[in-house]
Design a protein that fits this description.
By secondary structure, the protein is of the alpha/beta class. It has 2 domains: 86 residues, Leucine Dehydrogenase, chain A, domain 1 (Rossmann fold, 3-Layer(aba) Sandwich), CATH 3.40.50.10860; 124 residues, NAD(P)-binding Rossmann-like Domain (Rossmann fold). The protein is built from 10 helices and 11 strands. The strands form 3 sheets. It has a 6-stranded parallel sheet with strand order 1-11-8-7-5-6. A 3-stranded parallel sheet has the order 3-2-4, sandwiched between helices. Helix 1 packs parallel to helix 10, helix 2 crosses helix 10 and helix 6 crosses helix 7. The longest helix is centred in the first third of the chain and has 23 residues. The radius of gyration is 19 Å and the shape is globular. Bound molecules: guanine (GUN). Guanine (GUN) binds next to strand 4 and helix 6.
């Protein structure tokens, strides 16, 4: 039976470290890190995520500002807000919750956020820095996964790592971070041939496809480490990952649950990135 990777505990310990450092820095600077979160429209899942980000900011002692804009917000209005926040000294990190309503250009918004305040690490400058292994911020979800692997002393060097999914938010940066730790990385996607076979080679399998219970026990090698990035809502309202947890836990050595696995780590990394942004902008790092 697999050991359950407890994202809540690891996330709490990361957030505690951020809170301690934040309190220490406040003593010397009299300033708090500030995070601005923009949400456009009323996607229920996005609202939950944004609310959790706000709560985490309060917990660690950050200043948190939420900009909840109506669904019909224009591109120009959104760009003007980003520009205002780029120039606001109280704000060290800016996050625009994705996805945006269809009429808005996500790419343009991401590129408008100052790379120095891009705590999602989505801006091309930060993506490029990650590629060459010389970065200030790591993307929140993949970095959260790396933190979990480190906490449980799971070695990556020389291991077969298979990443399911090639999104800019998770799949691609995840692959890069595993590569930085000397994993042998394969990225699978919707056109991959013999996908089940490729998955079965994995010592470390990261699922980020957005399809409930996509990874079944027959696709998993005995004693593999299985990381589930998926958050899918079932017809009964319950959350479910991309992995068939009930059955895969009998094959894997470690597994992340959904909820309570990777999800809380995403927010913990966001807090870390905002603290880093604060320190860089105040020439403390
Ligand atoms: N939507 C889903 N995940 C994320 C994330 O990590 N950052 C932002 N900005 N939007 C998201």
């Amino acid at each position: 039976m697999a050991k359950i990777i407890d994202g809540k505990t690891v996330s709490a310990s990361v957030k505690q470290k951020v809170a301690d450092e934040c309190a220490e820095l406040f003593k010397t600077t009299g300033k708090k890190p500030g995070l601005a979160v923009i949400i456009v429209g009323d996607d229920p899942a996005s609202k939950v995520y944004v609310n959790n980000k706000k709560k985490a900011c309060e917990l660690v002692g950050f200043l948190s500002k939420e900009y909840a804009l109506p669904a019909q917000t224009t591109q120009q209005e959104l760009m003007e807000l980003v520009e205002k926040l780029n120039n606001d000294d109280e704000i060290n990190g800016i996050l625009c919750q994705l996805p945006l309503p269809k009429h808005l250009d996500e790419k343009a918004v991401i590129e408008a956020i100052s790379p120095k305040k891009d705590v999602d690490a989505f801006h091309a400058v930060n993506v490029g820095k990650i590629m060459i292994g010389d970065y200030d911020f790591l993307p929140c979800t993949p970095a959260g996964v790396m933190e979990l692997l480190a906490y449980y002393n799971i070695d990556i060097e020389g291991k077969e790592c298979v990443v399911l999914g090639r999104s800019n938010i998770v799949g691609k940066p995840m692959s890069m971070l595993l590569l930085h730790k000397n994993g042998t990385v394969t990225i699978c996607h919707s056109r991959t041939k013999n996908l089940a076979e490729v998955c079965k080679r994995a010592d470390i399998l990261v699922a980020a496809v957005g399809i409930a219970k996509f990874v079944t026990a027959d696709m998993v090698k005995e004693n593999a480490v299985v990381i589930d990035v998926g958050i899918n809502r079932m017809d009964n309202g319950k959350l479910c990952g991309d992995v068939d947890f009930e059955n895969v836990q009998n094959v894997a050595s470690y597994i992340t649950p959904v909820p309570g696995g990777v999800g809380p780590m995403t927010i913990a990394t966001l807090m870390k990135n905002t603290l880093t942004a604060f320190k860089i902008q105040n020439k403390l790092a």
